[in-house]
User: Fold this.
Amino acid sequence: MLKLLQEFIPVTPSPDAQNNLLRFERLEADGLACEVTFDSQGAIIRYNSLATAARGLGNVLAGLTGLETSPFTMNGVMMDISRNKVFSLDGLRKIFCRLALLGFNTVLLYAEDTYELSDAPYFGYMRGRLTATEVRQADDIANSLGLELIGCIQTLGHLEQYLRWNLNGYHQKIQDTSSVLMVGPEETKALVANMLDFWSTNLRSRRLHIGMDETHDLGRGRYLDHYGYTPGYELFNRQLQMTCALCAERGLRPMLWDDMFFRLGNPEQAYYSLTTKIPQDVLDKIPAGGQTVYWDYYNRDQQFYEDFLQLHRDQGLEPIMGSGIWIWSKLWFDYDKALNTLRPCVNACRKLQVREIFFTMWNDDGAICHFDSAWTGLVKAADLAF
Assistant:
């Protein structure tokens, strides 16, 4: 960690200084914890994980002292690399170093089609897709900084960039609508298996985000033409069960966005409805290995977060929380929206003892936002988590 950070932030102690020693000591504590003190010899960083050692170093560089603790076992950032923002390896190295110094311990790479797949030459074609070698190298960098690198992909919807290439009629077999895969065909299963193989092979982490959000028109395109009407819940759970079974074969623990469980439970397809009741037969079919992610970048009321988190638990779901660093559809980071949604969200998670949280950095509308403006929000999110 120190060697990599030294390349990123070259700090050379003064040869005349008598108090330039940097010492690290283990700290026994639950969750995430680090403590920084200074004495006549220099700085002492007490830490309980590599990630908190990096946060402690960040505090030393900022001249901050004291004990910091966090109840979160996952304190992460999701980077969208699907919309005109595929980072180079050098770019990822710089970002990972900064995230480590802030105390984050997880990075999710959101890639719809921007990674290479064997036997799928048009998957990510002309989109700057990452190679297997690049992903492995990124994982090595992240691991050396105490960051768990997790793939965050799509295995049902949001695949319009790939599905537009209808090669020799192949997509007639796997395409339901312009962005949603056809549920059922062996060709769809083979494509998803190919996706899982890429991330399973090239990352250390055994966790994988399989997406599956916002599939509003599921079953209402070519599937309807071929097979007639099938309830959305049934199609969604078929795809989920198939994908989770493929994950289990590869030793992967999947997580997925959970909005469709709630949207399909009311005719308006409203996500943030406190009256939504997911049918018990649907809940019973959710694979035991699938962990849901409650995403909310909009609500400003802590009580709503508490109520919606509790609604998850009342229906047998233990959610991961996904909040937002507001950089999408904007030229500059939106401090007002971020601050007024991050604070109530994190506070609600603390109160209800939600242990896993990550902060999304979407790049809607072609990543037009100045990326470095987001660091204000990332610093705020990191500080709120500690």
